[in-house]
Sequence to fold (465 residues):
Amino acid sequence: MTQMSERHTAKVIGVTVAAAVGGFLFGFDSSVINGAVDSIQGHFELGSFFTGFAVAIALLGCAVGAWFAGRLADRWGRKKVMLLGSVLFVVSSLGAGLAFSVPDLMLWRVLGGLGIGIASVIAPTYISEIAPARYRGALASLQQLAITLGIFAALLSDAVLQNAAGGASNELWLNLEAWRWMFIVGVVPAVVYGILALLIPESPRYLVGKHLDQEAADILANITGEVDPHERVTEIRLTLRHESTASFDDIRGPKFGLQPIVWVGIFMAIFQQFVGINAIFYYSTTLWKSVGFTENESFTTSVITATINVGMTFVAILFVDRIGRRILLMVGSLGMFASLLMAAIAFSQATGSGDDVVLPSPWGAVALIGANLFVIFFASTWGPVMWVMLGEMFPNNMRAYALGISTAANWIANFTVTLSFPPLTRSVGLWFLYGLFAFFALLSFFFVRSKVQETKGMELEEMHT
Fold:
């Protein structure tokens, strides 16, 4: 039993916020490319396919990082793996900012992707393990809030740097173009993340798995306010009996080689990307320029969208532990379907061709409203709730592998959307792509309704296959 005094509540929130800075880096590094896409394309003279590949290749690193993060965390501990992510972020930010060729840029982007993949697994794992059940949904949602703040900070810094230089391709400081500084400023939050990782306590579940029961009990008593921390340690140990021999066999099952609960996690992760959220956050500046917005208007619109993303994440934090995960997901699916359909209809009215495409009145406003309504529904539901679910829905004996494979699926789906978006925009048009995203949003509603179980208020030790 946990008795949360104000002092313990503050401590839990403090360590959660510190861990969630990994989410900030996740959002920052994945979206900072937004303002640099056109400049990279022009500087390195890339076609639409290779432009998409230069953006998307980081996501391959993300998938690899996500796959190995869980096992590294079980072997080294959560804190050491957070430090590894911090170092990868620092090196990647400097390398990408100073890149002299396309292969060089891609190398640093992949390295940064490894860091993002690590952060995407470790933060929700750590938060779900340190947070009491009654507050876990809200605290785990802080991870998504941090991601949205990272996206906002990246797009805002892109806009500020672009404006200061008079264009993303113009030189700013030290004879380096503004788009290069967009990457380099990522060093600052990466260093902060590393420092915070040194200051927070280790996960009690990791410590119990390493037979450090007294240390785990001290953390449970001092941070979460457990009335009987030793009894809690015993409960954790009972669920971790097979942890020392955890392997891929733990997630094997009768449904196409995996346990049904693992497939649920995989498809939730895929649906979160196949609704097209990162088509907006990776390419929004390019997207709005493609339908007649000026460069300044496009950067400003991207920042406004990111601001909405941050604000609506608070809705999920307020309601995820009150009305539950499942209802939020279904409401979000229907809202995303309607708003994406609105945007698809608007984009179908575009006139012109090549670089001279415009949305006639009132369709420009309709597209903008539809896209931002989509962000509202995504940010208040699927954005945070999917990560909350992945952090808590799997039994302890399979959590590391199941979370790793589900998160890797999320990044592979992200890679697929990101790589295909630029060439498909030219070949089939934005209206078709947004119609396809709307279809997946509708499909996700029926998936959640039939396959996803509620986890609100349940302890991690109560999760079963």
User: Anything to note?
Assistant: The chain has a mean pLDDT of 79.
